[in-house]
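Lecture 7, part B: from sequences to assemblies.

Below are the input chains for today's worked example.
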Amino acid sequence: MGLSNDQLRLHFSNASIGFETENPLLKDVNLTINSGEIVGLIGRSGIGKTTLLRTAAGLLSPLSGSVECCCDLTMNAKRGSIALIPQRLGLIQHQSVGYNVLMGALPGAKYLQTVLSLPSREIQEATKDAIRAVGLSDKVFESVNRLSGGQQRRVAIARAMVQNPRLILADECLGELDAETAKEIIELLRSLAKEKDIAICIVDHNPLRARTFCDRLLQLRGNSLIEFDNLNEKHSLPQAGDR
Amino acid sequence: MSNRIVDFFHFLKNRPILRSGIYLILLVILTIRHLEINFADFSRASTNLTILMGEAFPPDFSVITDRAAWSKPQCTFEADWACSPAIIGITQTLEIAFLSTIFGMVISLPLAAMAATNLSPPWLAQITRQILSALRVLPSLIWALIFVILVGLGPFAGVLAMTMYTVGYLGKLQYEALEGVSREPLEVARAMGLPRWQIARFFAIPEASNALISQMLFMFEYNVRHGSVIGLVGAGGIGYYLNYYLSPFQLYDRVLALIIVMYVVVVIIDQVSLRVRRKFIDSKDQIQRPRWREVIFSRKN
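Predicted structure of the full complex, as structure tokens:
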């Protein structure tokens, strides 16, 4: 079952995805994402992009077929190997930026450190570095619900950075952002993919924007996941009425 | 006659509210008859009330000024007022409420995490819920009676009794709050591969913290009110002194003074607690977590 290639980060093999076996959202999904690659997922609302991402994260089991992350079935993926950035970011609203970013270090922390809630010096430094990298050094103690949408997205990315995962699954983390902020977030994701060899699978509603920073674009159409040639623009962009 | 009854039922058929009202009134009448309630007893009650009021008024506020030499535990302060039944009683009630709220919170929080279906496997959630339900079956007064038998008279029995009740009651409020937290932070934690206890400790509890703090303050309020009742069975607090004046001596003027003191304290605590809790609950467009200094030193609510 295991995959031998070290570069492989996510592998769907003939997977059916959804909630009902008789009526899956997606059928026969075959998808491979390698390290350092940014893959964009596009498609209409409600077609199953989030469900695909949740399955990749191991939160849902595939109805049939298999989904593997870094050579393990995603349900048994190595602790901390997958970082999920959900649509509404999944930040703990009552807590500070520092606390939220620090949570990314939990999978790598020693048991006693978590029991006593005493992060090691290395974890503290990694947290500070991540916060610095996303440009929020002056907001460390600020409650995340007092930040703007763009700043909150940066907090979620910093949390993923501290986690040091092999795969980042980001669900519309560029939604509702102005062009300038979206560009900053894209740069952050690109640097993570290239410098740390992390594979990124990102859902984006804007195919034109997704084409500018993704290595590959996948489109969900009907019950299928279509991988297509980036150069074929006519087919690459979802058309009105697509399903 | 029978035609009239049929007409009446036809009339009711299209009037559901009136029909429900009539059924309710019938049920009330049946219940009163079943309980054999005799409203003629009111006449006796009014006579007794006149006697009671005559003995209770004016209230004897010596309960705040005079030393209670028979207090339990022995009061060692020099000032007489500091060792008066009212002050000792109310202090004990507050202390019992405080300790039982803290102990109850410490015990109920892990139980609540185990009872929350979004944090625990269904079998564990079900078992824990049954335990919490079992603790809520008995009112605090019966718990007090049990602990007075087990550990003897005094505030310790009161603390144990109120703690048991707090665990059952607060545990339910807490697991409902934990089940209400947003799904996304928990999914982030699950995708990380964290164990359940870490998801509860670092994600769910901080996310629900405002509700949890608010519930704890509410429980303290509740325990202050009920802490005065458990003294009637000897579990400490102001109830002990109420019982002392009621049972052997029937000193209703002193009892009334104690009730007034208790009322004033409960109203003050309610108001303070309400103001603090409002800080944690109110939100217009976003949930805010106040800092303690903001709560304590805020100029306006």
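Note for the exam: Residues 143 and 161 of chain B are 5 Å apart (CA to CA). Keep this in mind when comparing with the next example.
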